[in-house]
């Protein structure tokens, strides 16, 4: 049930416990993210159980770019997750929080010599390769180190799902992955470096916040067809298919249970499209596991009205949550304690940054607000804190975690 409103108050409700968010706000002045660890646990279990129906031989690699809070990483590791990383910084953070090298898949288009060298020395599970020059670079470094590099080739299946154009990644014009027609060129590199490259996997990732499940189905179908051909190729040693992440959530309602039918639909299509697939099935979910279970809490500094608008000016804004200004994303905004006697007022909820795009939500109908009221920007557990900055030299926000009714603060 996660964040919900009970008796006009924002609470975190899980199992038999219910934790009132105002209990933390009482002692705070500065903005902070609040995460619900029990919610993440039940979401992970639901997702993993669903996908296990598609394959018993399943590896869930959490895309930690979505939220790399140490307690979230530790929790997901304890639940059996592996991890998908995109920088050496993420490798280090993952390992500091209990993940092993053998848990790690390294993705991303711009891996440096240092990143590749360190990962090969550590012996990570797989490097997902995005270009021919990257494959050659890995081969040369492996030769120097005298190791065999575990390679997944990321293909670009050329599908164009309905989502924000900044977060599609599997369309032919995106920078990610190799074309299926590049398979011959990959063979040429591998034949030069047979002892250095183990082509053990194929991978795709078509974008993020995707609710149009047909695109996943199309991408998996195209990829499996190519997999079947490459499986016969003696230069390849295919053992796994990584279907990436990208499943969206319903930002238009605060009811997290509405995501479950989307997860069911996704798991069913993966099952249908991977029937009789002989290898390991890998996935890289980020948002769907954590978005619902984080909120950004901000305090009203001022209420300002002009002839056109009422502004609720918070002590948090685009520097702490970039999604509204970067992708025109809509996040529900609710008061921590609703002023039930107040009249309904239409507000633009804005931050302190000197940019007109610093709007967390426009035209929001809320019960009349006053200075020092706390508001929660919901569904901010993914791509929130990890994308925050101290632009304008504002301080970074804090991060608290609630778990079994206990509050933990790490930053
Ligand atoms: N795997 C790879 C290779 C990725 O690049 C990503 C996300 C994921 C997995 C996880 O995708 P998810 O399941 O979270 O959709 N900042 C944007 C989202 C960027 C996603 C980047 N890649 C946002 O706030 O919407």
Describe it.
By secondary structure, the chain is α/β, with parallel strands linked by helices. It is 28% helix and 26% strand. The protein folds into 2 domains: 3-36 and 292-409, Lyase, Ornithine Decarboxylase, Chain A, domain 1 (Beta Barrel), CATH 2.40.37.10; 37-291, TIM Barrel, CATH 3.20.20. Strands 4, 13, 14, 15, 16, 17, 18, 19 and 20 form a 9-stranded mixed sheet that branches. Strands 5-6-7-8-9-10-11-12 form an 8-stranded parallel beta barrel, surrounded by 5 helices. The chain has a 3-stranded antiparallel sheet with strand order 1-2-3. Helix 3 (70-78) links the parallel strand 5 and strand 6 (82-85). Helix 2 runs parallel beside helix 3 and helix 6 packs parallel to helix 7 (183-192). It binds ligand LLP. Residues 63, 65-66, 84, 107, 167, 205, 208-209, 244-247, 284-288, 323, 327, 382-383 line the site of ligand LLP.
Any descriptors?
411 residues, alpha/beta, Lyase, Ornithine Decarboxylase, Chain A, domain 1, TIM Barrel, 9-stranded mixed sheet, 8-stranded parallel β-barrel, 11 helices, 26% strand, binds ligand LLP
What is the number of strand segments? Answer: 20
| CATH architectural category of the largest domain | Alpha-Beta Barrel
* CATH third-tier fold name of the largest domain: TIM Barrel
- The tally of domains stands at 2
Cα end-to-end separation: 26 Å
Please count the helical segments: 11
Q: Which secondary-structure class do the elements indicate?
A: alpha/beta
Which kinds of small molecule does this entry bind, naming each only once? ligand LLP
Name of the CATH homologous superfamily of the largest domain: Alanine racemase
Biggest beta sheet summary: 9 strands, mixed
Range of strand content? 25-35%
State mean pLDDT (0 to 100 scale). Answer: 95
Helix content: 25-40%
Low-confidence stretches: none
What coarse outline follows from CA principal-axis ratios? Answer: elongated
Determine the oligomeric state from the structure.
single chain
CATH C-level class of the largest domain: Alpha Beta
Rg over CA atoms? 23 Å
């Amino acid at each position: 049930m996660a964040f919900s409103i009970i008796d006009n108050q924002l609470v975190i409700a899980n199992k038999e416990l219910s934790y009132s968010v105002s209990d933390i706000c009482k002692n705070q002045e500065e903005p902070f993210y609040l995460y619900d660890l029990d919610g993440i646990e039940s979401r992970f279990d639901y997702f993993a159980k669903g996908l296990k129906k598609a394959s018993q031989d399943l590896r869930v690699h959490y895309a930690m770019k979505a939220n790399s809070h140490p307690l979230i990483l530790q929790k997901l590791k304890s639940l059996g997750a592996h991890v998908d990383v995109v920088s050496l910084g993420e490798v280090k953070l993952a390992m500091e929080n209990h993940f092993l090298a053998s848990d790690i898949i390294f993705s991303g288009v711009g891996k440096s010599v240092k990143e590749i060298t360190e990962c090969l020395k550590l012996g990570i599970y797989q490097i997902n390769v995005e270009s021919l020059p990257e494959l050659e670079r890995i081969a040369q470094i492996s030769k120097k180190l005298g190791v065999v590099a575990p390679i997944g080739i990321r293909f670009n299946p050329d599908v164009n799902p309905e989502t924000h154009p900044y977060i599609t990644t599997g369309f032919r014009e995106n920078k990610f992955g190799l074309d299926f027609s590049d398979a011959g060129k990959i063979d040429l590199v591998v034949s030069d470096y047979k002892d250095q490259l183990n082509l053990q996997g194929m991978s795709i990732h078509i974008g993020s916040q995707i609710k149009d499940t047909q695109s996943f189905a199309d991408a998996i179908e195209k990829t499996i067809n190519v997999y079947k051909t490459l499986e016969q190729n003696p230069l390849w040693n295919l053992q796994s298919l990584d279907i990436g992440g990208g499943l969206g959530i319903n930002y238009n309602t605060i009811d997290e249970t509405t995501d479950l039918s989307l997860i069911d639909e996704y798991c069913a299509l993966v099952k249908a499209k991977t029937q009789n697939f002989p290898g390991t099935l890998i996935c890289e979910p980020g948002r769907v596991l954590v978005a619902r279970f984080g909120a950004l809490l901000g305090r009203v500094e001022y209420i300002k009205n002009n002839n056109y608008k009422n502004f609720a000016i918070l002590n948090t804004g685009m520097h702490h949550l970039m999604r509204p200004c970067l992708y025109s994303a809509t996040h529900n905004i609710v008061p921590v304690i609703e002023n039930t006697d107040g009249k309904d007022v239409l507000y633009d909820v804005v931050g302190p940054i000197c940019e007109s795009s610093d709007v967390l939500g426009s035209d929001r109908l809320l019960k009349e607000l006053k200075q020092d009221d706390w508001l929660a920007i919901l569904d901010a557990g993914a791509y929130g804190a990890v994308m925050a900055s101290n632009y304008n030299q504002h301080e970074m926000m804090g991060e608290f975690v609630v778990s079994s009714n206990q509050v933990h603060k790490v930053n």
